[in-house]
Amino acid sequence: MNDDQREAIRSNAKYLREVRPIDPEEINEYVDGQPHPAAVRTVLRESAVGLGLVERSNGTFVPVSGEPIDLDFDGVERFPESHARRLEDLLVERYGRGWPDGDSGGTLRERIRTFKQSYFAGAPVEYDATTALAYAIYHLPDYYAAIQYVLADLAADGLLPRRLRVLDIGAGVGGPALGLADLLPDDALVEYHAVEPSPAADVLDALLDGTGRNFHPTIHRTAVEEFAFDDEYDLVLVANVLSELDEPIEIVERALGALADDGSVVALAPADRETSIGLREIERSVADEGPATIHAPTVRLWPGHVPTDRGWSFDVKSDLAVPPFQQRLDDAATGPDTKPGEFVNIDVQYSYSILRTDGRRRIEFTPDAGRTAKMADAERHVAERVDLVAAKLSHSLAAGENPLFKISDGSERTDHYAVCVRESALNRDLLAAEYGALLRFENGLLLWNDDEDAYNLVVDAETVVDRIPVGP
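^ thats the sequence. predicted structure below, dont judge the formating
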């Protein structure tokens, strides 16, 4: 097909898109030489982003809707079999059908142990082809799930457009990319750009072949420090990579500068102490001291106040079903140091931050200073009963029988926790509310906990806890 025919196809599509669904078998009749409908379809797919077209299941093309994405999302139970098969195909291609066994299985298990040790030591992970595959075995499922929970909440806020330009910084082997692609409805048009310089990009490239017809990926095999950031994006993902960057604050600031007016930067980090606190430090730098607004989940309820506590906060979702490739690698492990389940990773626990530049927040609420205490003033209220308004920023952290939750109003200088010593119908919202919910505490007893260097708000039979409705 020559350039004139391609241009004729695009011109006809521009006209017909305003009239009726575009059928490749109709357009070919209007083009000199009448190229085969399959060739017309290929040109339409290649031009879909520029023309703003989505391909329907019947093979026709229609303009993408201007309405935001509306999801029917009920969580993630398992890593999809189709993606699992593609990963196993890569493993078989490199190591053969017995990849979990012998030298290949031993090497993959050793790499998993090595990057886990590096990770907990705060050291960067050096990728080669083997490490990339080991990383995919261990982390594809939980990263796939985590991004879906965060983006589903963003969609519920009405902040994911159906025509979506995405930049994925440090895309790795593709967990967030696959999660994004599977979360979105078929009529979303996604122009996806991944920045990944390591051999992980080869795994990502292969797995992206499993995404839908309206997901249009491009991989930039360059270091993020060298990436131009010269386009606008509706969504920038910075998932599980900030702790590995030399200048993470600078990269997040550049990402914020590349946002469309209504865009979001979504940053994720593992739930462990160091990376989670590191994410909050970056968040505070670019928001409390910089150009961004924190949309969620942390709050700044009191004007003129920002938190200076540790900021360790993470969400927890239901475990995934064990992926077959993890089970096979784990079952094949032998030796005296082997621990059952060592190579199974089905926990979905993560810290996240959604940053914007338009000032929009999920929770827009200012407490009544006449009847509500600030956490910044906690020292003067020790051993007193107080009223507070705060976001619930953890699931129960208690090792004992009394549920314990991190809470924040965005003014605290040190950690605050709500501990329920006696559940009642009046305070049950503390236990029932989801992560990030805004709660009003009435008549809670504020105490200092010497063991934890933190304040405990004791919730007992005299305490009332109510959820405050906010958001759309």
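The domain at 375-467 is CATH 2.40.50.140 (OB fold (Dihydrolipoamide Acetyltransferase, E2P)).
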